[in-house]
Structures are given as C-alpha cells and as structure tokens.
Records
---
Amino acid sequence: MNGADAGTETAPVIELEDVHVRYGAFEALAGVSLTVTGGAVGLLGPNGAGKSTLIRTLLGFNRAASGRVRLFGMPMPQRVLEARLQLGYMPEREAVSPSISAVNFVTFLGEVAGMDRSGAMERCHEALNYVGLDDARYRPMETYSTGMLQRVKLAQALIHDPRLLLLDEPTNGLDPDGRVEMLELVRDISRRRNVTVVLCSHLLPDVQHVCDRIVMLKQGRIVQDGSVEALTAPRPGEYEIRVRDNSEAFRLGLEAAGCRCIPQRDGLLHVTAPAEMDASALFGAARRLGAQIRHFAPARNSLAEAFLEAIGSP
Amino acid sequence: MPVYERTYRAYDGTLRRGFRWAIITRQDLRVLSRFKLVQAFFLLGLLHTLMRVLHIAAYNIAQQDPTNPLAMAVREFQLLAVDAQLFAGFLQWQWFLVLVTLLLAGSGAVSNDIRNHLMDLYFSKPLSWRDYALGRFMTLTALGLALTAAPALFLLLIHLLMEPGWERWAESAWLAGPIVAMSLLYTAPIALVVLAASAALGHQTYAGAAVVILVLLSGVIHGYVSALTSMDGAYTAYYALSTPTAVNYLGEWIFRAPSHGYDVGLLPAWASVLAVCAIAGFVFVRRVRRSEIAP
C-alpha cells in the first residue's frame, strides 16, 4: 500500500452507475454501469465503442454528464487527485520526452506521483528492470524503438505501485516476441501482484490471454459482461468430434439421424445434435457405423464468436 | 533490495501531496540548465554583472578616497553615480537577455508536451492543471529573476558592503524593493506571453516567432506614438499601447528615476501591463485546463 487513503481499501475498485459522457451532441458513453472489485478486466469493442472514453472517464479527463463514478470508493471528479495516487495509466499514444533518458523521465513521473527524488530514482530502476529495459535506459528516449517506448510507458505507470492499472492498447506496435513479453508482464502484474488491471484492446487473443473478465462495448453501451469462462461456455447439444476410419459414413449416419454436421479443419466435425440425442447416442452411432472416436468435446464459443454475437456483424 | 534484480515489489514509502508545481519547476530547471544556449545567455548576464561590480567598486573607492587614482578615472570616464538610475539601467539591459532566454526556455514548454502526448501521463498522476500551469510559469519566472533580481540584488549588496556607514545604508537599502518589483514586471508578462503562445500555437518555432513579432510590433507602436507626440504632446497616453514601453515607464516610476521624455501615465501603463498578463494568462490556462479536463 502506498500510503494513500487506506480507508477505501474495502470498496470496489471501480464503480460506474448509469454514466453518460458526451462530446457535444455525440454520446460516447450512454448509461454505462460497471463494478470491478479486482482481477484483470478486458474492455473490448470496435473503434468508437467508448473504450478509451471509459478509461479517460476513470482518469477524470472526461466528466460524466450524469451518473456516478467512484474509484476505490472515492467520488469522481471531486477526489480525483486522491484517486490518481492509486492509479497507473499507460496510454495508447506514444508519449515521450525525446531529449531525456528513460531514467530521468520515469524518475520525474515518480516525483510527480508524490515520491521523493531518491525513492523515485530507486523505484524507477526497479520498474525499468521489471519491464526489461536494460542499459538503454540511460540513452535519450528519441533513440528508442516502439517496443522500448511501450516498456517505458508501462514502467511509469507502475512506478508508484498503483492498485489499479489502466492499459490502453499496450501491445500496439510491438513485434510478436515483444507482444508476448508485454502480455506476460501484464498477466504477472494482475495475478501475482494483486493489481487490478483494466486492459483496453481490439486484439481478442491479448484480452483472452490476460483477462478473467470481459466487458464488451458497442456505441457507448455495455453489450456483454462476463468471465471468459462464461462467454466461452459449452453450448448444449454441440460437440466437436474427430473419428478414425469410416469418417464419411459416420458423418452421413449422423445426418440421417437428424444431426447437423459441419466439417472443420484437421478432420474435426462440428456436430449439432437434436435435443433428444445425447452424447452416449453419438458414441453408439460411432460404434454402429464402425468409426473410432479419437476426440470428443463439447463445442465452445470462441471469444471471437462471443464478440461478434455481442456487437453484431463486424 | 538490489537494483539490478528483475522483480517487482510493493512500494512501502509514502506518497506526498501538495506543491506538485515545484516538481515541474525543478525538473524544468534541471533540463534547462544543460541547455547550451541558455547557459550562454546566463554567461552574458554574468559578464554584464561583473562589469557593473567593477563600476560600483571603482565608484565607491573614488567617493571615499578622492586621492585614489581611481577617482580620476571615475571623473575622466564620467561614470554614473551608484543610485536608483544605475540599477534601473542595469535591469533594462538585462531585459533583452530575459526575453531571449524565456523564448528559448518557454516557447516549447507547453507545445512540446502537447505534441509528445505527455499531458495524458502528467494528468494521470496526482497533478492538476493548476499545478502544471503554476509550475511552468514559475520556471520562467525563476529564470527571469535569476537574470534580473538576483544579479541586481548582488550588485546592491556589493554597494552596501562598500558604504562607509549605517546612515548611507538607509539611503540605498530601499532599492531592494524596486529591484524585485521591476524584475517581476520585466519577467512575468513575458513569461505569460511566451507560455500562451506555446500553448495556443502548438509548435515551438511558431510560438517563438509570434512573440518576436509582438515585441517588434510594440517597437513600431512606440515609434508611431513618438512621432505623434512630437507633433502634439497630448498623445503620450498612447505609449501604453506598447506594453514594453509601459513596463519601462512603470520601472522608472518604481525607482523614482525617470530617464525618458515620455509620460505614459500610471493608469494607462498599469492597464496595458495587466491587460497583456490577463489575456496571455487566460489563453495559457485555458489550453492547459483543456488538456486535463475535456471541454
């Protein structure tokens, strides 16, 4: 705990109640209600859905036209500066001070967060070590690659040990290795360091890799909110089956019995069975038709399917 | 904990509140102190101060010992007396350095932060737009005062130390107030105008050019009014349209040492300076506020 208001530790980290945010006549958030008590939450949605507006509202950059926003139990924007003591933010856009080094930059932001100079310097090195920025930390930031700048942005967000980390597209511009490393860091922060993470991304695999809860936004409204498990739960009566020998006869036999069969890649068959037909009936059919089942699993929604279902056609 | 261990631990220190603007100012001054051109202008200011130190020393020695060879030199070169006029003149010379230094230091102060998207990072920390604006303003004010009030007070101290007795102290010590007041008059309006240009124009070069144009325009206005008053003395208040002229007039009034032939009038002079400060302050603060709180 960083010495900020300890009396708010039991309150939910984020509470939004019927929040409306407008840019002139355009309603960017239209009645958003959301409570986050911990863990990693992914914000998903197409461009213009309101993800960044939601994050900026949490930061106090956007003021709600109506509704209630609370962070750690503190009303926003009245106690925005207190809330920011416990909040780290990694913006989507490149944010650099070209002529100074990462050490100077992150230390300075640590001081802005309220640390004394020597504490900020020590903590800066720890944060830069953690994000994996080595000797380059002493070079001017104008010489950095995109990946290094992303690391610096993450380090400055972590320097004051926030309870809530808001990450806006943290893997933007990263090569595949850098992306995996960044996601591992974020996952480590959320799972082992007990920091609540809100990850805003349009990359479904990133969100699925890190988050245990997903909130989907469309046109400023929450259209889906649930755990990754729930969103990708098995669908009743749908199975993925792979058989050895007589696979064509097996497929035709199932279709004759009223199943809908869709061949997938690698010999996998997506089977939608009628209500009266359960799993044991499918095994019985395979035995009868001389096919040997090598893979049998209830079919799950992929996150992409859940996303498309929630936001409609892309 | 070892520094070079790749890990992450909870921060067990305390996060301080208040005086966040001072962090902005300190960081700015730290960065600017490594800026070669800023160093060069401070060096020029230092050379000017050293020349004045020699002047003050020579004058005081000559005053107290007319037989000293320096006394003849003072008479020979008709060195100015060490009085209010000398300090006002010193500050007027330093004004040019203040203008150039603040242009170098301030024209990119806000525009670069906006262009490099740093405002989002600053305001995600417990920093308000008030802290940011005050911090930036105090940076330029500190630079301006370091080129005006600090050397002028140093010169005054040298002069007082060379005075023969306490009664002579009282004659000169009152100059400390006017020195600080005139230094602020020379610094604050320029600081606000430079910051406003930086915030409004969004580019260091444009901001610098805009301020230079405004200063040149003030000179042109001064010239026109000068021509008008040479024909008809009734137009002297129009000098207030040139804010640098108004500032000079107020400085001389503060020092009780009029040296120019024009009479701007106190009210028009103050109105001119305050209007420029108010407009520039409004533009600057409005832009900074919009960076934290979306309109």
---
Amino acid sequence: MRQFYGTTLSSRLMLGTAQYPSPAILSDAFRRSDASVATVSVRREAGRGGEGQDFWDLIAALGVKVLPNTAGCHSVREAVTTAHMARELFDTTWIKLEVIGHSDTLQPDPFGLVEAARILCDDGFEVFPYTTEDLVLADRLLEAGCQVLMPWGAPIGTGLGLNNIYGLRSLRAHFPDVAMVIDAGLGLPSHAAMAMELGYDAVLLNTAVSKAGDPAQMAKAFACAVEAGFLAHQADPMPARDMAAPSTPVIGKAFLE
Amino acid sequence: MKILVNAETKDVSAHVLSDILVELGYGDVKIATALNEAFVAKMARTQTNVVAGDRLEIVTPRQGG
C-alpha cells in the first residue's frame, strides 16, 4: 500500500460524508465500504451550537482518518483561510485543497491551486490537491510541495466516470512514484475498478454512494470494485489487440468436412 | 456595537473575540473563527479586539465530499 504523507491506509477507498439520507445511513455506508478516509468540510454554524458537535461525534465513531476539504472556495485567500480553520477544528494537517475555477464544471483553477498549495505546504499542511490530469499542473503541484495528487475522473457530482483515460494513464506513467487518488466524477463501481486498473492508489467518491437508492449496498459494491481493480493491476493485465486470436489451440483440431 | 456574524448583523457588548463568542453562546462549542477574512486561532481569541462593522465567521465541522 502506497503511503500518503507517511500514513499507510487500511483500504484504498476514501468516502465523502455529504448528501446521505440520514446519519444512520452514512454510518452504515462507511461500515460496508471499509473506507479508510472520510472527507469533511467546515461550514457556518447555524446558530443552535450543536449540529457541528453532533456531526463530529458521528465521524469520530467511524474510526477513520479525516480529510477536511476547502470545497466551494474560489480564491487562494479563501482556500487558505478555510484550510487553517479546518486544521484547528479537525486537528489534522491533511487538507483536500479545492480552488474552484469555474462554477458550471467545478474544475480547478490551476493557477490559484498551485499558489494555495505552495502557501499551505510551506505552512506545514499536507496537501491533497483536487486537480486535473494535466501533466504540467501536476509538476507544479509537486514542486510546490505536494506529495499526493488527486486528479478528477470527471466533474464533481456528474457520475460520468473517467473522462480522459489517455490523460489519466499518461499522468500515472509520468509520476510512477507519487501517491495518486482519482477524486470526483465516479458514478459506478466499474469506474472505480478502471481507476485502480490504471494503477491509481485509491479513489475518492461521495455522490455515487450517498445518492444511490441503497447507499450501504453501493458502498459495498465500490469496495469490491476497488479491490478487484487493484488486484487486476497487480496481476499485470494482458495487452489489448485489434485482431482476434483463438484461445483454444488450433493444433490438433480434427479435420471434419 | 454592531458586527456581522456569519453575514447576519449582531449587537454585541464585548470587544474581545473570546468574550464575544461567549456572549453569542459559543463558549464551549467546537468552532473555528475568522475575522475580516483572516483566520484567528483559538489561542489568539483573547488577544483579538473586534470593532464595529467587523466581519466574523464562525464555522463548525460539517459533511463534505
């Protein structure tokens, strides 16, 4: 298992905590998924003063590593401030860095992302940047101090799967020693299996599980798919080819006319 | 004095951030704070003065993807 900033995770599935029908279903989904990481956020206190603590108690009971995000941040300053608040609230140096550049696609702002990553890495954060499959951007993020990359499969919440197989394969090949997680856009377990077959170290998803008709069962399905994809990658898959090739030996076939 | 707390106008009597949080009912709540878009660490709240018109953000743990 690849390490993430020196931490060896117990599974290759990271799961979001948003949009579940109920806290009980969220907990059930996490148990079935065997996820090792839960993504969380910081949001304004609504006023009663208890919702945040209740949610925190729920997450703490899951016994997983917590990865706070800067979701919804569109500027470097906003993302950095949010990261600082998250570090204090969740008592972790891990941060899933999102600097959104476009409201419709939620694609990262590559320039702001690198700038924020550099600021946070210099300040002791262990940054998990939500990025694209762009090689140059990946290089800049590594130069900024990131030791993990999290390229998207497709835009957040779309469930489209892996939109750019070539790009993701290329990214994996160019940085074989960097821990990489496919984050966002996965809709089906087969998408997660494909990500793992490409050699990625983990997948991070939320909506595909939380918005399924049966989140707990879908969580289990993703767990199976991640494991299957990982095993397949380890097993060194056969190369694809255009022409058919008989699997049954031709030699020894009876001549029957 | 009037300040903005999570974008809502609040009338508070205290002038130090830690005292304002107690006044607003956040004395023992798990929160993080930012004043005028700048993070204020928990340890710094007792030394942070707040003036009329300041913008205070109070956040707590929430669901996220």
